[in-house]
Amino acid sequence: MLGFKSIGRSVITIFLLFALLLNAIPTQAADAGDPQALLELMSPEEKVGQLFLVTFDGTVIDEETQIYDLITNYHVGGVVLRVDNNNFASEDTIAKTLTLVASLQNLAWETASSKSNIVGVRDQGTPNYIPLWIGMQQIGNGFPGDQILTGLTPLPSHMSIGASWNLDLANQVGQVLGTELSSLGINLFLGPNLDVVETGSSEAADSLGVNTFGGDPFWVGEMGKSLISGIHTASDDRLMVVAQNFPGTGNSDRSPEFEVATVRKSLDQLKQIELPPYFSVTTPAYGDPGRVDGLMVSHIRYQGFQGNIRETTRPISFDSTAFQEIMSLPEFQAWRDEGGLIISDNLGSESLRRFFDPNGTNFDALPVARNAFLAGNDVLYVNNLRSSTDPDPYTTLVSIIDFFVQKYREDSAFAQRVDASVLRVLKAKEKIYGEFDVQNVLPLLDNLSEIGTSEDVTFDVAQEAVTMISPPAQEFDTILPSPPAWYEDIVIFTDVRTVSQCDTCPPYNPVATKSMANALLNLYGPQAGGQILEQNLFSYTFSQLINVLDNTEVDAPEFLLENLQAADWVIFNTIDLNPDEPGSNALQRLLVDRPDLLSGKKVVVFSMGPPIYLDSTNITKLTAYYALYSRSPAFLDVAARVLMQEMVPSGALPISLNAVGYDLITVTSPDPEQVIDLELVLPEETPTEVPAQTQTPGATQTPAPTPLPSFNVGDTLTIRTGRIYDHNRNIVPDGTVVRFNFQISGEPGITQQFQTTTAGGVAYFNYRIQAAGGLEISATSEPAMRSETLQINISPEGITSILSISPTPLASPTPTASTTPEPTATQSPTPIPEPKHNKFPTLGEWAMGIIVMGLGFIFTYLIGFYWWGSARWGLRSALCALIGGLMAYTLLNLGTSGTKYWMVESGTVFVVEVIVVGLLFGWIGALIWWMRTAGRYPLKKRG
Questions:
Q1: Is the CB of residue 680 less than 8 Å from the CB of residue 718?
Q2: Strand, helix or coil at 186?
Q3: Using CA atoms, how far apart are residues 431 and 236, in angstroms rounded to an integer?
Q4: Residue 476: in which H helix or E strand, if any?
Q5: Which pTM value belongs to this model?
Q6: How many Cβ atoms are within 10 Å of 537's Cβ, its own excluded?
Q7: Which backbone phi and psi does 538 adopt, to 5 degrees?
Q8: What pLDDT digit, counting tens, does each position of 721-744 carry?
């Protein structure tokens, strides 16, 4: 009997251990394939944790770190890696980032694998494995838009892509991003920015810098959609894209980072400018690669949002009424219903802290997080959010999560709201990974070979983006007929900014003092044609120029002022005006305080940032002004080619620039010089097969003549324009108004006019035939007032004849536009011979000069001695001549433009000629001296 009891206890024990082991296995596979089923298995703690996107300091993840606790015990939904939180190493950045990402994902997996239903574990249950979001911002142009500063392909800025007006290039940049970030295991991309900059003078525009595609809503949306499509395609949809700054901050009056901005716009006005780019990326069908996965809501207020100018919303990320009114728009509603995610902007920003606690004494983060969630955000992005009473942000975050869990258990309405957002999160993660298996989530080590190897894409963008702002193209050949010659001096000033990958990492300069000079030497130096000589290049920083202007001795190069005064060309590589960078205003200081230093020189400016910081007066003081929009090495390479006139700038400003009278609305309107094509869209006809028995094998079949279209009274004609182009020869934005004019024969002077708009540069109109007879159709799209004319004759029997008549061309016809701008042919540089001689006297020429001066000394001594009658005057005559020769030789070594030119051309011969002239002038000086003294007496004859 005792044996049976022992056996029974053993069986029960084995059964319990087996159940415990089953309970310890993380829920995945079947549940992960069904987000709804997985949601039902999750505890309140797990659900609440998925609502938070957090940050952490450093690169260490162990049991002592806060991020370890947040992942293992609080089940946060994801992390964001930031350069200011020291999440990246300076050496082997790519490999160490890959290791960090893998460690984070493994920690989430191990947490689900190891925890079981054991007393003492915080969740009191087995957590379900849900992959982490690993997010970061990498929008191009280096710091601060990029987080990884070395190792990845240095990508162009948004504005440089916009200045190319090339959607294919935007897609290619997206493909590079998608390939490289997904290879690192990054699955959440915070970008792109879809702000529309209406003016380049506001503080917000200064804050955005070049991190915007431009100032036209249509083109900003199309560029963003192409970039997103490239990211999704290249990453195999394993990278979630979150468009930033929703619903747009480009028209705010201050930087949103430090103060909550207020914009005076109604919802109807927002639908005209700010919202269309977001419409472009939310309206594509589900599964379209150009469709954005999420929107990050900015902290911005609107005055007059609902029409009452005296009413101001709370920050839109906290105003449930205003936010839901925006999201109920048809362009967002379907996207939202199909799983579109809403993520708040950083709740720990300084602007929010100032808004909710103006006095800086009592900031409570808990209601901030609660109100942001209840306003409609699915996920809360939290970085450096700290209540005034808490010692650190970690303590505040834990308190918020605990409060949300308690609220979930006590408030069913709040619980429903949490469940709805978590279900969106799970569906978004399931879309990326399918089954939640760690082996499917971890990045592959063999993908590293593709990282950092796509500089050719950046060069292509730089080549098509570079823009000549001044002078006008038709005046360029007159103002700058030729590039720098080999004998001309070039002084280069560069705004050098120092950055570092982390607080303890060594600083470095993305654009160094000699970057431009090195680009010129690599392309045109002695080893590449000899158009540029190294001794002609003098490179300095903006800070050094400021120090010289301020007459300070610290970091003021000894010969900067002398080289600037002797220069033939002066090049400035600018970025922006930044109060934290004291040297950033060096160019403006020089133009205002010391314009004399630039007088008579060719002054060329390359803007590596937004080209908005020079006014019209300063621009008139420049010889040429170019916009590069970006700071990567490829853009300086293009700048060197443009300076040497090998490359013709083909980009166009994507923003308005009042300083040169460039208005984007005018530029993107239809070109008045074009002739709008018109055609009748014929109904598709099913081709009739020739019966088999009538076909003779081997016989040539004569195609049947195309029958004339047949239309009867009551039928509908569809008229289509050809592509309509703007002043830059790009298609006009969608929504451009086109008017179709219909004139019926027999009704002279009566024209029916119908209005429609373009899509993809083309407009359509359907016209119902009212009666048989003739019909003339034309179209206009102001200011383009000329089009082809279609003459359509419809007989009572339904036979139709169509005639297309083109208008008489203008005196200077515009070339026929193509669908895509044809690339500008690269101008082959004219071969320039190697310099014949050096610009300065060589050692041999110095020796020759000494010989010539010695002979001159002897000769003039003899003249003085025998002609003027004394050894004293002979010595005076010789010394004066020698002084003249030495002064002439000194002039050669100083190297003025004229002497350098003739030195290059004639060499030793020119040295001898100049010294002889110096000797002659010195002796003439001695003659004048003698005439004023000894010449008063008659010459003494010597026998």
A1: yes
A2: coil
A3: 11
A4: helix 473-479
A5: 0.82
A6: 21
A7: -130, 120
A8: 999 999 999 999 999 999 999 988
- How many C-beta neighbours within 10 Å does residue 25 have? 12
CA–CA distances in Å: residue 377 to residues 81, 300, 323, 740:
21, 15, 10, 46
Number of CB atoms found within 10 A of residue 496's CB: 22
In sequence order, which residues have a C-beta less than 8 Å from that of residue 179 and are 6 or more positions away? 234, 235, 450, 451, 454
Residue 423's nearest CA partner among 50, 15, 79 is 50
Give me the average pLDDT of each 10-residue run along the chain (943 residues).
45 39 42 79 95 96 94 96 93 92 93 55 63 96 91 95 97 96 95 86 70 95 97 96 90 75 88 95 94 95 82 90 94 94 95 91 94 96 95 96 96 96 96 88 78 94 96 92 92 94 89 95 90 93 92 80 93 92 91 92 96 92 96 95 95 93 94 93 53 41 55 86 94 94 76 91 91 87 93 76 70 41 39 50 72 79 74 77 76 63 61 71 73 56 39
| Residue 67, token pair as written in the block | 């991020």
Assess contact for 580 and 616: CB atoms under 8 A.
no
Please state at what angle helix 843-867 crosses helix 908-932, rounded to 10 degrees. Answer: 30
Distances from the Cα of 637 to the Cαs of 419, 495, 591, 628, 643, in angstroms? 53, 16, 26, 11, 10
Check: CB of residue 367 under 8 Å from CB of residue 6. no
Q: Please write down the long-range contacts of 14-18, taking CB distance under 8 Å and 24 or more positions apart.
A: none
Of 500, 405, 524, 823, the C-alpha closest to 649 is 823
Name the H helices within 515-654. Answer: 515-524, 542-549, 560-566, 586-593, 616-620, 633-643
Task: Report residue 414 as tokens.
Answer: 């709040």
Q: How many CB atoms lie within 10 A of CB 266?
A: 16
Residues in the chain: 943
